[in-house]
Amino acid sequence: MTITGYVNDSSNGKALENVSIFEKNSGIGTISNQNGFYRLVLLKKDIDLRVTNDGFKAFASQLQLNSDTTLVVKLEPHLNKKAQNQNDELQAGIEHSKKRNTRRNSDFK
């Protein structure tokens, strides 16, 4: 059986590249291409599919394949971009409100 499909960002519909698509029972996996496309060839009819990517909520589904199947997965982002950027800055030890653009004078003459 072949399962093919696309992985998209649910917030904007854009294709997601390098997303992990893994069938747990067989251990067979792949990653999505630049268009979000993936393809898995599986022997079993009962599959336990996992779709994961950093910054997105994981997708899991148990399916019974009776024929070749197309499955489009829309992954939900964990946080919006602004919140993610602020979170990254805080983790780096920089609070957004304390950033300043100051120029240091050289001590050398």
Structural features, described:
The protein has one helix at 81-91, and strands spanning 2-9, 20-23, 28-31, 37-41, 46-52, 59-64, 69-70, 73-75. The radius of gyration is 21 Å and the shape is globular. It has a single domain (2-97), classed as Immunoglobulin-like, CATH 2.60.40.1120. It contains 1 helix and 8 strands; from the N terminus they run E-E-E-E-E-E-E-E-H. The strands form 2 sheets. Strands 1, 4, 7 and 8 form a 4-stranded mixed β-sheet that branches. Strands 3-2-5-6 form a 4-stranded antiparallel β-sheet, with no helix packed on it. With 109 residues, it is mainly beta. The protein is 10% helix and 36% strand. Strand 2 and strand 3 (28-31) form a beta hairpin. The longest helix is centred in the C-terminal third of the chain and has 11 residues, at 81-91.
For this entry, give a set of tags:
mainly beta; four-stranded mixed sheet; globular; 109 residues; four-stranded antiparallel sheet
Radius of gyration computed on alpha carbons:
21 Å
Q: What amount of the residues lies in strands? A: 35-45%
Structural class of the secondary structure composition?
mainly beta
Q: Segments where pLDDT lies below 50 for 5+ residues?
A: 94-102
Number of domains: 1
CATH homology group: Carboxypeptidase-like, regulatory domain
Mean pLDDT: 82
